[in-house]
């Protein structure tokens, strides 16, 4: 078992070594192939995953039936639908593998058991949720305050694997632009890299 993903994901200074070991042992390795669904719309999430290798995305279908990418998951990210998992409700999103994925799965019931047993896991959970809320809020604001070019550059800086491996159409929908606009942005960046 490689501990790199766990060390990145459970990066919390107060975990005792034995607590971290128990948390790590509660995970099960799962392999998904490119195109596999990790979670489908209408189903209730019963686990979350730490992505060790690969690339996945979440998407919804808009009122016209078009797929709109809501998030990309890259190595060491947690793959989760928080509302579905913790409120025990069907998800509105789909989570699918863009590439083959190696993950570490934790079942909801096991997580709940450890959550009540290990106080430091509760503290870690609060810190993680706060950080995720901040990131989602920041993304929402940036959709209105940053140009499409700056949003693209931000994605390139934060998650270069997405730019490298995800289809143009999925990146464009995530950035809130058309495929044509994204192609133009990429061409401009190549021909005038210092302007941006």
Can you offer a commentary on this structure?
The protein is α+β, with helices and mostly antiparallel strands. The chain is built from 9 helices and 8 strands. Strands 1-8-3-6 form a 4-stranded antiparallel beta sheet. A 4-stranded antiparallel beta sheet has the order 2-7-4-5. Strand 4 (56-61) and strand 5 form a beta hairpin. The protein is globular and about 55 Å long.
How many DSSP-defined strands?
Answer: 8
Radius of gyration: 18 Å
Structural class: alpha+beta
Please give the count of helices. Answer: 9
Tell me, rounded to a whole number, the average pLDDT.
91
The H/E string reads HHEEEEEEHEEHHHHHH
Shape by Cα distribution: globular
- Record the strand order, biggest sheet: 1-8-3-6
In percent, how helical is the residue content?
40-55%
Q: Could you write a compact summary of the structure shown?
A:
The protein has 9 helices and 8 strands. By secondary structure, it is of the alpha+beta class.
């Amino acid at each position: 078992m490689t501990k790199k993903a766990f060390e990145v994901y459970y990066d919390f200074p107060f975990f005792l070594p034995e607590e971290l070991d128990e948390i790590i042992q509660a995970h099960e390795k799962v392999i998904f192939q490119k195109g596999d669904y990790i979670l489908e719309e209408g189903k209730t999430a019963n686990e979350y995953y730490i992505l060790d290798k690969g690339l996945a995305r979440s998407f919804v279908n808009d009122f016209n039936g078009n797929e709109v990418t809501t998030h990309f998951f890259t190595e060491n990210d947690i793959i989760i639908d928080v509302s579905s998992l913790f409120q025990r409700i069907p998800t509105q999103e789909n989570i699918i593998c863009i590439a083959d994925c190696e993950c570490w799965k934790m079942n909801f019931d096991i997580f709940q058991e450890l959550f009540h047993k290990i106080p430091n896991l509760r503290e870690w959970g609060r810190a993680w949720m706060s950080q995720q809320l901040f990131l989602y809020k920041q993304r929402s604001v940036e959709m209105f305050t940053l140009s499409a070019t700056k949003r693209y550059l931000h994605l390139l800086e934060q998650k270069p694997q997405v730019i490298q491996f995800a289809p143009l159409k999925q990146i464009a929908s995530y950035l809130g632009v058309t495929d044509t606009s994204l192609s133009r942005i990429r061409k401009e960046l190549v021909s005038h890299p210092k302007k941006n």
